[in-house]
């Protein structure tokens, strides 16, 4: 009998794939942040120009995407953490119902990225961001590996929605292997 909460399964045929992607996304984000902070010493190094349009920088984001909803207080930080964990929980329930591999991968990417940023907010009080792209005086927002995974996951979900049927449902043989 499958584990369920309120009659909804918490582990579906593609949950393992999504969980693996989430773990790999989370681990790659953690490793990159550890390396940037402890080996590359980004906090003391200052802006490091990689190309004419890409710099490595050290920025602590106390808000969410694009620096919105800045959480300067402990209560604000806790609220953002709890909200992110609530979203991750909802994504986990969606993952349990996923019938397409692209959906499982997409949800796993978003979960892994979200948890990477949640851990930053819990440990540091803000999210560590490093990548700064710019051209002709315009600077894009500064982001990190976790943000890349979140954007890729959302992009895959949008792609799946825009091209229904292209990726096809998982057949019963594949579901048993999930």
TrEMBL record:
This protein specifically catalyzes the removal of signal peptides from prolipoproteins. It is found in: Cell membrane. Keywords: Aspartyl protease, Cell membrane, Hydrolase, Membrane, Protease, Transmembrane, Transmembrane helix. Coiled coil: none annotated. The active site is at 129, 147. It comes from the Bacteria. Its EC number is 3.4.23.36. GO terms for cellular component: plasma membrane. One of its GO terms (biological process) is proteolysis. It holds the Pfam family Peptidase_A8. The gene is lspA. It comes from Parvibaculum sedimenti. This is Lipoprotein signal peptidase. PROSITE patterns: SPASE_II (PS00855). Its main location: membrane. NCBIfam families: lspA. Pathway: Protein modification; lipoprotein biosynthesis (signal peptide cleavage). The keyword Endoplasmic reticulum does not apply. GO terms for molecular function: aspartic-type endopeptidase activity. It is a multi-pass membrane protein. It catalyses: Release of signal peptides from bacterial membrane prolipoproteins. Hydrolyzes -Xaa-Yaa-Zaa-|-(S,diacylglyceryl)Cys-, in which Xaa is hydrophobic (preferably Leu), and Yaa (Ala or Ser) and Zaa (Gly or Ala) have small, neutral side chains. Belongs to the peptidase A8 family. The chain crosses the membrane at residues 6-27, 75-95, 102-119, 139-159. It is an enzyme of class 3 (hydrolase).
């Amino acid at each position: 009998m499958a584990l369920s909460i309120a009659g909804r399964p918490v582990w579906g045929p593609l949950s393992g794939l999504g969980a693996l992607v989430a773990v790999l996304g989370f681990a790659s984000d953690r490793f990159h942040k550890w390396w940037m902070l402890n080996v590359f010493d980004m906090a003391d190094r200052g802006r490091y120009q990689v190309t004419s349009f890409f710099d490595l920088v050290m920025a602590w984001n106390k808000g969410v995407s694009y620096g919105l909803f800045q959480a300067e207080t402990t209560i604000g930080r806790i609220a953002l953490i709890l909200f992110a964990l609530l979203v991750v929980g909802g994504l986990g329930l969606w993952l349990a119902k996923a019938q397409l591999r692209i959906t499982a991968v997409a949800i796993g990417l978003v979960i892994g990225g979200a948890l990477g940023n949640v851990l930053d907010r819990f440990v540091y009080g803000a999210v560590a961001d490093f990548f700064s792209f710019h051209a002709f005086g315009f600077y894009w927002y500064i982001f990190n590996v976790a943000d890349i995974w979140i954007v890729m996951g959302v992009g895959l979900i949008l792609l799946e929605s825009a091209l229904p049927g292209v990726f096809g449902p998982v057949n019963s043989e594949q579901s048993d292997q999930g």
